């Protein structure tokens, strides 16, 4: 089994002031009375669940891209969409832009290391739909969502924040950049293991957002879905990745995967 290799290109910088203009300008509270999340003591999208602490992201070059290791499978480098199935997304100026429906990879994956860069729209959310702007997601095995969201502008329910295992586990901290700025996820994902229909071990995930650890070998409690807490159902050892379109033109670039 190959081990993940993480690259975090930092640049020297001067920290900005604590007060950040436009931070959590909008609120999108959660919902009462939804199902419990395993044995965590929380319910899905619980409104009073503590928000992740704000940590200002380290200074990274806005244009610098993390190169792929020699053994990586490059899913998108700005030149073509050949690694994806037929879709209704846009390919413009070397970027993938969320359109309608899911964007699924041709190849199927199990345990992986993954790098992806994303950018939410600028301007950010509007007053009428703060929960839909800058909203997307990365579904490991088409089932387990790592949330993509403008958590700089909008304070959404904690388990819907950028870097959350959607509907389950908020990120350790909120390290989101402003809308219009490039962000990165570096992911190490361990697929669930089944013996027939029986779950032997659950999926787990470690995530760095903009170079900061936000999920640390976090257990995934089952497939993720809005307002739901779903049990595991046996599925193949390898399945495609899926990028979610959620009514917002979130942009992606520089996506690569290393099977582990």
From TrEMBL:
<feature type="signal peptide">
    <location>
        <begin position="1"/>
        <end position="19"/>
    </location>
</feature>
<dbReference type="GO" id="GO:0016787">
    <property type="term" value="F:hydrolase activity"/>
</dbReference>
<feature type="domain" description="3-keto-alpha-glucoside-1,2-lyase/3-keto-2-hydroxy-glucal hydratase">
    <location>
        <begin position="72"/>
        <end position="258"/>
    </location>
</feature>
<dbReference type="InterPro" id="IPR010496">
    <property type="entry name" value="AL/BT2_dom"/>
</dbReference>
<keyword id="KW-0732">Signal</keyword>
<protein>
    <recommendedName>
        <fullName>3-keto-alpha-glucoside-1,2-lyase/3-keto-2-hydroxy-glucal hydratase domain-containing protein</fullName>
    </recommendedName>
</protein>
<dbReference type="Pfam" id="PF06439">
    <property type="entry name" value="3keto-disac_hyd"/>
</dbReference>
């Amino acid at each position: 089994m190959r081990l993940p290799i993480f690259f975090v290109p930092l640049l020297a910088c001067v920290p900005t002031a604590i007060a950040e203009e436009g931070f959590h300008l909008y609120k999108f509270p959660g919902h009462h009375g939804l199902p419990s999340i395993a044995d965590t003591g929380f319910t899905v999208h619980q409104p009073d669940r503590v928000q992740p602490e704000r940590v200002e992201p380290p200074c990274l070059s806005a244009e610098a891209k993390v190169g792929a290791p020699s053994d990586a499978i490059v899913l998108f480098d700005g030149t073509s969409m050949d690694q994806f199935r037929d879709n209704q997304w846009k390919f413009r100026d070397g970027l993938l832009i969320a359109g309608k429906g899911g964007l699924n990879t041709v190849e199927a994956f199990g345990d992986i290391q993954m790098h992806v860069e994303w950018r939410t729209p600028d301007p950010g959310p509007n007053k009428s739909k703060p929960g839909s702007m800058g909203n997307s997601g990365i579904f490991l095995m088409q089932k387990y969502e790592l949330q993509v969201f403008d958590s700089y502008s909008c304070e959404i329910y904690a388990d819907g924040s950028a870097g959350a295992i959607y509907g389950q586990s908020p990120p350790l901290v909120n390290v989101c950049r402003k809308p219009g700025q490039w962000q990165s996820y570096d992911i190490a994902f361990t697929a669930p293991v089944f013996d027939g229909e029986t779950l032997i071990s659950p999926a787990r995930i470690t995530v760095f957002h903009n170079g900061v650890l936000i999920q640390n070998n976090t257990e995934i409690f089952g497939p993720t879905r809005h307002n739901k807490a779903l049990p595991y159902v046996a599925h193949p050892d390898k399945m495609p990745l899926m990028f979610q379109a959620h009514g917002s033109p979130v942009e992606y670039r520089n996506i690569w995967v290393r099977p582990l």
